[in-house]
Known about the structure:
Blueprint: H1 3-15, E1 19-20, E2 22-27, E3 32-37, E4 40-45, E5 48-55, H2 59-67, E6 69-74, H3 80-85, E7 103-105, E8 111-113, E9 118-130, E10 133-145, E11 151-155, E12 158-162
Antiparallel strand pairs: 1-11, 2-3, 2-6, 4-5, 5-10, 6-9, 7-8, 9-10, 11-12
The structure holds flavin mononucleotide.
Flavin mononucleotide binds next to strand 3, strand 5 and helix 2.
Amino acid sequence: MSTHHLAADFKAGMRRLGAGVTIVTTFDGQSRAGLTATAVCSLSAEPPQLLVCVNRQAYPNKVIARAKRFCVNVLASGQKSLALRFAGATGHKGEDRFAKGRWNVLATGAPALDGALTSFDCELARAVRSGTHTIFIGRVVAVATRKGGKALLYADGGFAGVAPGPATKPAVKKTKK
Ligand SMILES: Cc1cc2nc3c(=O)[nH]c(=O)nc-3n(C[C@H](O)[C@H](O)[C@H](O)COP(=O)(O)O)c2cc1C
């Protein structure tokens, strides 16, 4: 299989992997930058760390690299229009993207979105270049979590709101001693 075909198959396969939608923001002391991202993953709880994969062509990439801080805002189902705005679908760039939504700061000064399900405020611990992307590893220094709310998910090229279902505790088998 050619590399071209493999890349296309990879992209088509990854579209099937549903994911929570976030807006990753940063502030370099001059201006704010942000992008919609689903390539976000928990890394460790002790210390609390997460990672975000950002295309090196994306404007926020270089701002995160120099600001050395970022905030991951986990979107609620009513925030789809912000997800589109921060994905570039409305033609807004850089600071202009922040004209919609209400923005605060937590500890680092990176923008935290009012009404997000959770905001993880991070100091940049490490940046690892790989292929077209940079993996930004963030050490979480503050968390703001809202009560309730449906998650915004992205799968198969579309958005959906998902409410928590009934109890999700895995069944534990009792073993005889
Ligand atoms: C649902 C969704 C998820 C996305 N996830 C990522 C991601 O994880 N990493 C990334 O670099 N770009 C991702 N993008 C694309 C970026 O949001 C887009 O390229 C970004 O807005 C570019 O910023 P710029 O126009 O300021 O350069 C995603 C787009 C959408 C619609």
